[in-house]
């Protein structure tokens, strides 16, 4: 056929390219993958991807413990709603680590975000069955997602004020006291702003606690308009780097949340690209979303969207007013959907 | 008459008399309906609750039926022209109708029309007329882009197959508006037959379209045109018609091409005449937004990547939104595409033409310019028209020379093109020749073409209509008519020239569009426009850069390579993110993570940092309008005064108290202050009222509003947002955000077009650029639901190639038909069922589910029967459904133990058997069994157990299902690439039947399958042997009887026969005779007596009967007399008067 594929260099933004290629039906070729390094990590340095159709159904995958499940899950969240049959993915591996958004974070932020686009219903769920900390893994996550034919446009321009902060302090294969220590320190900082703070402690024992010890905290701030801002922090993996005190971790995580609040917007920095993708895949209507400063990942994602879907977003910077104390500059992104319809879904 | 104008008699109202009284009564008791109800309540009482429920139910059903799923209204503010397709069999009056309609709207007469014509029909509406020829390819393509179909029907002949075929095509590809137009009504001499025919046709049309579909009657021709009033009415109908968006059209961008320009390097063409071409295609964008560099499909040509898209100023703009009731004459602009352009010429423009040409000769102009020049020459050629020249120039006939590289010169220079020297020679020649000759030749060619066409048509007509063809209608397509008709054009266009008051560039472009002379400027115009575009784009971009501080540039890169550091600093936190972008190479192999690591600058231990986000929390400061205090206050105002019913205590709103206090205090104060207060209070009151009302409305509506209403409102809001969002953005930027929006006039540049597209370009055939959605450019397996069309006379065979029209595409493919069994298995069918849906699997272009398609067996030839073989819908887009066919493996027992047998001949190796271990087998006689294990010898033999002992004569079979692969044939129909005049003769892969027929191969049947006379050997049954023991136990009834045949009777048992003596014989005979005589005599005698007695009796009886009758008669007579007397009495008394 006449459609020409796209070509990229380097291994970065690998998931974006594959996801967009799959959704747009365009072939993609990635060259020079770590070509200068001694250990490129693959068998070769070039990858060619010809997208097919997304089947869905029951999938099980043993994720590589080098990256956490969040890495896989992020791509899966983007594709989940466009399968032929509802997806039920069981992912095994590392549930929480420092490089990728943890499953707890995605559960509490990405899912409510997707609900705003009309991806909801009974089968929409992310469940942490077992927890597995960084080097060893051994965690298990079940992600189920219903299938949608079309995506609703959204208008998220006003995040509203933060009404409550929730969180999960988890610990596995360490003293259950760790979690309580994290909670105390985090509350110490956040209580300056809000009384409605509740941080659950989640201590996994026995078979559900994975292979490695570790602990961490995920904080989510919910606004009046149903937007979620989040921050998280995980202890350093066993045997890699200096150990972290739970108090420090709690405090730092709370500060990270403040940072996230400072950035603001209706979607937190981790899920920016997800929101933009779903806006792109919407009907041919205008969608608007207010974001904090765009992360480099998101910026690259915007470029990729332009490559794959020929869609550009109108980007407007909203500076805070003089007397407003609402953090930094915000970015309002406006775009028109491509009118994507799920071609995988069967018509009965 | 004495100068005084006599007034018509005025109506005098009656003031008395029954009429006036009636009226008065009516006026007083205005509501007669309610009166009736009051007067006669019984008649309106509930008679039956069931019936009432039924009527209510029905009313609700009807109401609900009217609901459509609400759609977001995405029509742009300036919609593209409405595509009006004029369809009908040949010789039905299509061209005449188009001409008449154009004349009706624009007061301009056009001659030969060979392509889409766009006109302005009203303040907010433009129309594009397109005539559809009798090629099924064209019919399919145009049905996909039509908004309105004018379906011409020859009333003198009735419906033809083409009409029904087109209707079915429309049904499959979304139903555009269809309006029937009956022509040739003047051929009816008898008024009654006319009426009858009209009615019949109307009702048939209704069943096909919908009940009450509009059918127009064009009663007759006047000087080769339809009657003005009728055309005017039709035009009015068209210009007020409303359209419902069609799914495929609203979800795909498409362009009905107006103009085509070949941009290929002429040198390249000279070296290799068959090289791929680059062309730019022009037209209004319709449907939805078109993305640049997207993929398109040109039906009849193939899939292409758009190299570039630009939007151009509208050649046929809508008149400005002035407060005018009607358009004046000038505003009815006509835009005729390139194909038709040679008909419209402008004498006044001759001078610049030649200048331009000369300049072109001097300079080595670009191809674009050359192209334009060639067009110019075309114009100059056709500028003046002299009908007398027609006969002279019959030599230039090579109109559609396939070797010609440019179709546009077809009219004039086909022969000149033979010498390879390109434009220069041509131009010179043309100059020297002057206008007249060129024109005439052009005209001549046209007429020639027409003649040919007519010939073809008539030939076709003969075929399709049989003997009933009549030479109908006056000769419309005569060049003379055209010649006359072309005059008014330039008067109008000159007006346009005068009118234009924009800057010079725009003027040029404007003229291009509005007046038929537009192409004249293309050479310069196009170049200029290109320059402008770049300039404009860059300017716009700079502007954009300035306004949106560099974030846009940061993300999407920029044309302008200006790095300003100030911006970065300006944005602070936002801009740090751009850094990695600058050294992209470094970034390429980074870690792929969506985490956004915070910069360390923010120290969250500082109070001021904390303060900077304090308002993000509900505990922070609220905005003016949303402050809790203000909200409370408002609430209080609303519900300030209330009485606590439980305590009986009256709560007074604070405000009112204050008010009363104020009142007391302020009495003495100045009036000014009071006025102020009054004002504010009034405002407050109003505000309060408004709020109350709002609240009430909200509550009230909540109770009543249905889901449907909510949805509608939501979509309405979305539509408003869509319209408003990019309204104030300039077009260059806007195009980047939303793509090119429908209604824009766009130019698409497409490279690598096959050369035949250009060389055998025929403007009569529509060129459609259909945009493809994401992944619609790919090919894959499709599952479809298909039904053979009930009017198609043959069923379809699996693996026979079929031509499908699906989405934008027409292609040939090989379908496999299958049907789903009750257990979900998809079983292959050899043929489609007669009256049922079945599944079809094909290898074809990925098209969204729910898209309809139609199938044809061939595109060529004129067949009397219905050509649409099947219709259906796409269900699924992968090969998850495995089509299977039944496979019976046969084996024979070679050794039989009790219930175990050794079977051979089913498999060839041990491995094969191993695969089928445990499979169930069966004999023909119905004994079931199971495969157990393979045997070592002979290879492929196995041991199987059965539920009963087999016989050596049994045949064992294993029923299995074998997956069938769908053949991967996807062969796009490239009908537009065929030479001119043969475009309807595309033929692809032949069916097996056709192939055999063509090659003269006869089917050689398996000799085993032939029927032979049945010879059955007589069956011998063995004696039934019942054991003695059993015999004993049986009841006598069932015991075998000793059934020996009877032997011979012995001699002693045989009785002797009696033989009489002659004397004995004599005596016995005489005696017997005497006795019988006596007996006979006696019998006769008694009979006689009896007979006479009976006679007597009858006589007596007759007498009695007579007497009885007589008596009865007497009695009756008496009775009647009495009755008559009574009657008389009665009558007499009635005459006297009413009896009391």
Can you describe what's shown?
The complex is a heterodimer of chains A (348) and B (1140). Chain A is of the alpha/beta class and 348 residues long. Chain A is 26% helix and 28% strand. Chain A contains seven helices and 15 strands. A four-stranded mixed beta sheet of chain A has the order 4-5-7-6, with helices on one face. A four-stranded mixed beta sheet of chain A has the order 8-13-15-14, covered by helices on one side. A four-stranded mixed beta sheet of chain A has the order 10-9-11-12, with helices on both faces. The radius of gyration of chain A is 20 Å and the shape is globular. The two termini of chain A are 29 Å apart. The model of chain A has no long low-confidence stretch (mean pLDDT 89). Chain B is α+β, with helices and mostly antiparallel strands and 1140 residues long. Chain B is 40% helix and 17% strand. Chain B contains 34 helices and 32 strands. In chain B, helix 12 (350-362) runs antiparallel to helix 14 and helix 13 (367-382) runs parallel beside helix 14 (423-433). The model of chain B is unreliable at 337-531, 544-548, 559-586 and 652-668 (pLDDT under 50). The interface between A and B is large, with 97 and 87 residues.
Which secondary structure elements does this structure contain, and how are they paired or packed?
The complex is a heterodimer of chains A (348) and B (1140).
Chain A: E1 6-9, H1 14-24, E2 28-31, E3 47-49, E4 56-62, H2 69-79, E5 85-93, H3 103-116, E6 125-130, E7 139-145, E8 155-156, E9 162-172, H4 177-190, E10 197-204, E11 214-223, E12 228-234, H5 246-263, H6 272-280, E13 286-291, H7 296-309, E14 314-318, E15 330-336
Parallel strand pairs in A: 1-2, 4-5, 8-13, 9-10
Antiparallel strand pairs in A: 2-3, 5-7, 6-7, 9-11, 11-12, 13-15, 14-15
Helix pairs in contact in A: 1-7, 4-5, 6-7
Chain B: H1 18-28, H2 32-39, H3 49-65, E1 82-87, H4 94-106, E2 117-120, E3 126-131, H5 136-145, E4 148-154, H6 161-172, E5 177-183, H7 191-208, E6 215-217, E7 221-222, E8 225-226, H8 228-240, H9 247-251, E9 254-262, H10 266-271, E10 277-286, E11 295-298, E12 302-312, E13 334-336, H11 338-341, H12 350-362, H13 367-382, H14 423-433, H15 435-465, H16 479-485, H17 488-499, H18 504-514, H19 522-547, H20 551-556, H21 565-571, H22 579-582, H23 584-587, H24 607-611, H25 628-639, E14 642-644, E15 649-651, H26 654-666, H27 671-704, H28 707-725, H29 731-738, E16 745-753, H30 755-759, E17 768-771, E18 779-788, E19 802-806, E20 809-813, E21 816-820, E22 826-828, E23 837-845, E24 852-856, E25 868-876, E26 883-896, E27 900-904, H31 910-915, E28 920-923, E29 928-934, E30 942-946, E31 956-963, E32 970-972, H32 992-999, H33 1028-1033, H34 1062-1136
Parallel strand pairs in B: 1-3, 1-4, 4-5, 5-6, 22-26
Antiparallel strand pairs in B: 2-3, 2-13, 7-8, 9-10, 9-17, 10-16, 11-12, 11-17, 12-16, 14-15, 18-23, 18-25, 19-20, 19-24, 20-32, 21-22, 21-23, 24-25, 26-27, 26-31, 27-30, 28-29, 28-31, 29-30
């Amino acid at each position: 056929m006449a459609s020409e594929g796209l070509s990229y260099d380097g291994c970065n933004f690998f998931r974006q390219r594959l996801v967009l290629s799959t959704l747009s039906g365009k072939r993609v070729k990635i060259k020079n993958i770590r070509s200068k390094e001694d250990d490129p990590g693959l068998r070769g340095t070039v990858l060619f991807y010809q997208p097919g159709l997304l089947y869905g159904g029951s999938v099980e995958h043993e994720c590589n413990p080098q990256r956490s499940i969040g890495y896989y899950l992020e791509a899966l969240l983007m594709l989940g709603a466009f399968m032929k049959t509802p997806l039920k993915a069981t992912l095994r591996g590392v549930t929480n680590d420092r490089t990728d958004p943890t499953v707890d974070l995605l559960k509490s932020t990405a899912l409510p975000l997707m609900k705003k686009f009309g991806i909801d219903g009974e089968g929409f769920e992310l469940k942490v069955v077992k927890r597995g900390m960084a080097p060893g893994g051994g965690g298990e996550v079940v992600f189920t997602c219903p299938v949608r034919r079309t995506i609703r446009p959204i208008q998220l321009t006003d995040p509203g004020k933060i009404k409550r902060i929730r969180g999960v302090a988890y610990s596995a294969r360490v003293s259950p006291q760790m979690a309580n220590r994290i909670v105390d320190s985090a509350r110490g900082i956040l209580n300056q702003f809000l009384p409605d703070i509740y941080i659950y402690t989640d201590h996994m024992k026995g078979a559900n606690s994975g292979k490695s010890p570790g602990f961490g905290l995920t904080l989510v701030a919910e606004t009046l308009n149903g937007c979620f801002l989040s921050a998280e922090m995980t202890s350093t993996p066993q045997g890699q780097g200096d150990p972290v005190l739970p108090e420090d971790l709690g405090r730092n995580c709370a500060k990270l949340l403040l940072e996230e609040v400072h950035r603001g917007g209706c979607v937190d920095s981790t899920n920016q690209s997800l929101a933009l993708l779903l806006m792109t895949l919407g009907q041919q209507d205008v969608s608007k979303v207010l974001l904090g400063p765009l992360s480099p990942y998101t910026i690259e994602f915007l470029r990729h969207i332009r490559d794959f879907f020929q869609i550009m977003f109108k980007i407007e910077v909203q500076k805070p007013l003089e007397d407003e104390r609402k953090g930094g500059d915000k970015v309002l992104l406006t775009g028109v959907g491509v009118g994507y319809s799920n071609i995988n879904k069967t018509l009965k | 008459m004495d100068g005084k104008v006599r007034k018509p008699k005025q109506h005098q109202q009656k003031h008395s008399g029954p009429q006036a009284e009636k009226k008065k009564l009516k006026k007083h008791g205005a509501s007669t309906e309610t009166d009736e109800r009051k007067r006669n309540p019984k008649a309106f009482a509930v008679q039956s609750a069931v019936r009432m429920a039924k009527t209510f139910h029905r009313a609700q059903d009807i109401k609900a039926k009217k609901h459509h799923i609400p759609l977001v209204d995405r029509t742009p503010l300036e919609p593209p022209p409405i595509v009006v397709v004029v369809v009908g069999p040949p010789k039905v009056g299509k061209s005449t109708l188009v001409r008449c309609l154009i004349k009706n709207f624009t007061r301009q007469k056009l001659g030969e029309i060979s392509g889409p014509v766009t006109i302005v029909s009203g303040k907010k509406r433009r129309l594009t007329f397109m005539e559809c020829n009798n090629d099924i390819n064209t019919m399919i393509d145009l049905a996909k882009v039509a908004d309105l179909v004018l379906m011409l029907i020859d009333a003198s002949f009735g419906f033809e197959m083409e009409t029904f075929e087109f209707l079915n095509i429309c049904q499959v590809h979304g139903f555009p508006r269809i309006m029937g137009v009956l022509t040739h009504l003047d051929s009816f001499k008898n008024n009654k037959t006319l009426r009858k025919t009209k009615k019949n046709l109307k009702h048939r049309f209704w069943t096909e379209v919908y009940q009450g579909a509009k059918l127009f009657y064009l009663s007759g021709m006047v000087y080769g045109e339809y009657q003005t009033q009728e055309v005017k009415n039709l035009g009015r109908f068209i210009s007020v018609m409303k359209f419902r968006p069609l799914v495929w059209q609203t979800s795909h961008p498409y362009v009905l091409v107006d103009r085509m320009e070949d941009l290929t390097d002429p040198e390249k063409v000279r070296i290799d005449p068959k090289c791929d071409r680059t062309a730019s295609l022009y037209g209004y964008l319709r449907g939805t937004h078109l993305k640049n560099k997207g993929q398109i499909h040109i039906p009849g040509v193939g899939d292409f990547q758009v190299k570039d898209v630009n939007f151009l100023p509208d050649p046929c703009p809508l008149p400005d939104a002035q407060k005018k009731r009607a358009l004046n004459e000038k505003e009815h602009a006509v835009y005729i595409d390139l194909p038709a352009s040679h008909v419209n010429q402008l004498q006044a423009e001759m001078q610049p033409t030649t200048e331009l040409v000369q300049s072109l000769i001097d300079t080595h102009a670009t191809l674009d310019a050359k192209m334009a020049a060639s067009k110019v020459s075309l114009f100059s050629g056709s500028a003046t028209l002299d009908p007398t020249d027609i006969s002279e120039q019959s030599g230039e006939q090579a109109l559609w020379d396939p070797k010609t590289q440019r179709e546009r010169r077809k009219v004039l220079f086909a022969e000149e093109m033979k010498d390879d020297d390109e434009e220069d020679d041509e131009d010179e020649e043309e100059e020297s020749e002057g206008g007249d000759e060129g024109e005439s030749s052009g005209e001549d060619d046209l007429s020639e073409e027409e003649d040919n066409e007519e010939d073809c048509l008539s030939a076709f007509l003969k075929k399709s209509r049989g003997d009933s063809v009549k030479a109908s209608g006056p000769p419309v397509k005569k060049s003379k008519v055209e010649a006359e008709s072309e005059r008014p054009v330039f008067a109008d266009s000159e007006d346009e020239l005068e009118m234009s008051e924009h800057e010079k560039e725009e003027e040029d472009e404007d003229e291009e569009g509005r007046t038929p002379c537009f192409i004249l400027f293309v050479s310069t115009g196009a170049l200029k426009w290109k320059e402008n575009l770049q300039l404009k784009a860059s300017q716009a971009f700079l502007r954009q850069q300035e306004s949106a501080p560099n974030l846009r540039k940061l993300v999407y890169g920029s044309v302008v390579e200006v790095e300003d550091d100030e911006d970065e600093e300006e944005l602070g936190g936002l801009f740090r993110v751009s850094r990695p972008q600058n050294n992209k190479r470094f970034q390429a192999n980074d870690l792929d993570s969506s985490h956004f690591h915070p910069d360390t600058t923010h120290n969250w231990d500082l109070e001021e940092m904390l303060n900077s986000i304090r308002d993000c929390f509900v505990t922070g400061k609220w905005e003016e309008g949303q402050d809790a205090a203000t909200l409370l206050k408002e609430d209080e105002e609303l519900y300030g005064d209330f009485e606590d019913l439980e305590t009986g205590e009256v709560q007074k709103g604070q405000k009112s108290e204050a008010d009363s206090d104020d009142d007391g205090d302020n009495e003495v104060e100045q009036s000014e202050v009071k006025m102020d207060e009054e004002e504010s209070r009034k405002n407050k009151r109003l505000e309060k009222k408004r709020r109350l009302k709002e609240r009430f409305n909200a509550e009230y509506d909540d109770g009543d509003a249905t889901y449907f209403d909510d949805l509608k409102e939501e979509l309405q809001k979305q539509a408003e947002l869509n319209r408003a969002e990019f309204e104030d953005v300039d077009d260059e930027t806007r195009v980047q955000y939303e793509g090119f929006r429908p209604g824009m006039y766009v130019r698409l540049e497409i490279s690598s077009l096959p050369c035949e597209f250009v060389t055998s370009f025929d403007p009569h055939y529509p060129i459609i650029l259909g945009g493809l959605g994401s992944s619609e450019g790919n090919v894959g397996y499709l599952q479809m639901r298909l039904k053979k069309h009930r009017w198609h006379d043959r069923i379809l065979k699996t693996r026979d190639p079929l031509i499908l029209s699906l989405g934008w595409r027409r292609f040939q493919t090989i379908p496999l038909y299958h049907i789903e069994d009750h257990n979900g298995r998809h079983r292959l069918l050899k043929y489609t069922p007669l009256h049922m849906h079945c599944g079809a699997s094909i290898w074809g272009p990925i098209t969204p589910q729910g898209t309809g398609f139609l199938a044809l067996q061939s595109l060529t030839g004129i067949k009397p029967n219905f050509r649409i073989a099947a219709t259906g819908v796409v269900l699924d887009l992968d090969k998850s459904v495995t089509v299977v066919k039944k496979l019976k493996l046969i084996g024979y027992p070679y050794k039989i133990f009790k219930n175990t047998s050794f079977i051979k001949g089913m498999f060839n190796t041990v491995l094969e058997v191993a695969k089928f271990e445990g499979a169930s087998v069966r004999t023909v006689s119905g004994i079931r069994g199971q495969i157990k294990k393979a045997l070592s010898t002979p290879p492929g033999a196995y041991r199987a157990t059965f539920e009963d002992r087999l016989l050596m004569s049994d045949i064992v079979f294993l029923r299995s299902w074998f997956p069938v692969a769908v053949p991967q044939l996807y062969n796009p129909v490239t009908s537009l690439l065929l030479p001119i005049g043969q475009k309807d003769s595309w033929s692809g892969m032949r069916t097996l039947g056709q192939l055999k027929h063509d090659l003269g191969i006869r089917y050689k049947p398996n000799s085993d399958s032939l029927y032979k006379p049945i010879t059955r050997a007589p069956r011998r049954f063995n004696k039934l042997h019942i054991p003695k023991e059993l015999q004993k136990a049986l009841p006598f009834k069932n015991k075998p009887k000793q059934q020996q045949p009877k032997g011979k009777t012995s001699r002693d048992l045989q009785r002797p026969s009696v033989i009489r003596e002659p004397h004995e014989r004599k005596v016995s005979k005489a005696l017997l005779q005497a006795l019988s005589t006596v007996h006979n005599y006696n019998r006769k005698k008694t009979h006689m007596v009896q007979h006479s007695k009976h006679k007597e009796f009858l006589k007596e009886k007759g007498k009695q009967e007579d007497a009885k009758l007589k008596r009865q008669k007497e009695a009756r007579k008496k009775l009647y007399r009495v009755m008559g007397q009574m009657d008389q009495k009665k009558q007499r008394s009635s005459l006297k008067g009413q009896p009391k």
